């Protein structure tokens, strides 16, 4: 029943699209983004059961629709292993590294400030306290936590 309803949905989408480039004319709308996000994986992925994929491939206008959007908005997907350099933001290449040469230093500094703030909070709230080790007056040693609980 689920496959039947999914096939019916694909058929209705195909009828609604007709011979248009997008669902509402010549420019994409949010519906196009939603439909493409569901159709493209179904069309491109290797699936264990290909019934629904075969039905989608039989609807030529939906296949053309997906191919058109892929080539228009994802041009690097044509067999290339990664997007064009102007669309990547790698730390070792591109404009991001050139804009901020001290990025690593700022990251390390922010981690250290955060760590100092957490430790300060822990000391001030009493979560962590420092006690001096060693022998106290009259030869008395500090009592361990387990020993304190047993004495109570």
TrEMBL record:
Q: Name one GO cellular component term.
A: SAM complex
Kindly state which keywords UniProt assigns to this record, in alphabetical order: Membrane, Transmembrane, Transmembrane helix
Ranges for the Metaxin glutathione S-transferase domain?
A: 6-69
Per the UniProt record, which residue ranges are transmembrane?
Answer: 108-130
This protein's record includes keyword Membrane: yes
Q: Which residues form a coiled coil?
A: none
The processes (GO biological process) annotated in the record are:
mitochondrion organization
Q: Which Pfam families match?
A: GST_C_6
Q: Which PANTHER family match?
A: METAXIN RELATED (PTHR12289), METAXIN-1 (PTHR12289:SF34)
Q: State the protein's name.
A: MTX1 protein
